[in-house]
Batch of 2 targets.
Target 1
Amino acid sequence: MADLLALYRTMLTIREAEMALARLFADGEVPGFIHLSVGQEAVAAGVCSALTPRDSVASTHRGHGHALAHGLDLHGFFAEVMGKASGVCRGRGGSMHVADLSIGMLGANGIVAAGAPIALGAALAHRTRGTGGVAVAFFGDGALAEGVMHETMNIAALWRLPLLLACENNGWAEFSRSETQVAARLSALAAAHGIPHRELDGADALALAEAAEEAVAALRRGEGPRVIEARTRRWRGHFEGDPQRYRDPAEAAEAAAHDPIARARAAFLAAGGEAARLDAIEAECRAAIAAAIEAARAAPAPRWEEERSGAYAPAEG
Ligand SMILES: Cc1ncc(C[n+]2csc(CCOP(=O)(O)OP(=O)(O)O)c2C)c(N)n1
Ligand SMILES: [Mg+2]
């Protein structure tokens, strides 16, 4: 019960934060592009529930949920995505570069599949330094068309590194069905590398959390990499503003029937939980997000004069 409520809170935080971002983006308060994970929240919430801040997470262009689920502070998050100096990366990164190394959030990443080798390196560092930590690489089904995904699987398997490969398989890679771009199934690729693979319903947060817990425990025991493949649905366009002419509108209606948040809510109520507790969590999430947005609005923009600070290490001597 407690776990389900924690997952509910994380998923709701992601949903409410992203829907707020959609409005802010439409109003011109968010620079650049944003890609929302609405409908896919259970994957971030479930997988990250098995982690601690000593563990590392590398993400994708659709990375808000991963950052928030791994514990990124809401104030630092909104200010960053809104390009303000109080952002977690001082407003220099924005949506696709949200990172906070203090909690092992290695960053969202605009380059498809680029998070995988970064997480692989983190897994190697955890092993070499004996931290006991693990690394997670979130990636989409479209990333399987990138060579570096295959190289990552190879080294992770060969060196038995503590790397969890967490695939969000939403069937789409930008504006194309991913099956038109990727010949192999992830299960077959994992098998070819001798990596245990589990496929799960991407709307079932509890099942994902249990699978992640089991996988992370195996990683901590030094048993080598694991793959979790979540079948999920992308509710919105590839990016905000995407007119989605390539997609049958009926698909959106079908996707909405697989709402991970509604599912968690129903499971909690069916187990005898009180609706008032869920409503209280919703009110808390909304209030926290509203406060973070107000603070970000009031925060100054980054100063151009300081643009180089943080880009280069100070010269020695
Ligand atoms: C190396 C590289 N190639 C192409 C792109 C353009 N691009 C951005 S997202 C995307 C598709 C990603 O699909 P997937 O990995 O399934 O993630 P999803 O958007 O479905 O979450 C592509 C091809 C890119 N950002 N990086
Ligand atoms: Mg995809």
Target 2
Amino acid sequence: MSAARPAPELPEPLAPIVDAHTHLDACGATDAASTTAIVDRAASVGVGRVVTVADDLAAAQWAVRAAHWDDRVYAAVALHPTRANALDDDAKAELERLADDPRVVAVGETGLDYYWPGKLDGCADIETQIDGFRWHIDLAKRVRKPLMIHNREADHDLLTVLLDEGPPDRVIFHCFSSDTNMALSCVAEGYILSFSGTVSFKNAHELREAAKVVPDDQILVETDAPYLTPHPFRGAPNEPYCLPYTVRALAEVRGQDPLELAKITTDNARRVYRL
Ligand SMILES: [Zn+2]
Ligand SMILES: [Zn+2]
């Protein structure tokens, strides 16, 4: 995220939409009032519900609190794959406790990130990430909630570990960024693909091709705010209210009416997250 560019203007409303993956804490929310302010802004353009996602333990505790402050907010809890080296017994016990909370609708974001090891100080190595991913898959099955996956340059190993471990009945690939082959593999397994602002990026030709092959009942939309602000606001801070820009871009790629896609993805979010 960069604050160098001003915040995008409010888009034309498009309702209803669910933001399937965002980080309200990283958007600047700290307490009930600042959380509600962000969700009010989103609701003003039709984004009526959001799933706020944790990447470490403190963020997981915060996400559950936020979901209790405002009934339009739901939480997902996990340790991000790059932080899988913090998954000790205490962290596991706390994540198990949090995942059981009725406001928690998914276990995530977990998965594999093969981009950061060796580049980021303290990043979990690949072996540790795979162990952590296996633990989160099992947790999702135990609490009977969907598994929300972060995948960076790890297509093959992700599918392999999921099949080896046995996936839970609902699996979401957040910010799907892979090619058509990977999309088809995920679709065949019954996984759900969630698209973010990256689908609108000028150079994302392969991703747009992938977005065309996803059936209506396996697609979600998300901001991943404050990151990945959609075109033409790339580099400006993202927030859940920006989601209509992405829905319109995705609808154009798929040859769909934006309102129709909004309804389809909202029905899917309700079904997958049991909202
Ligand atoms: Zn992610
Ligand atoms: Zn995220």
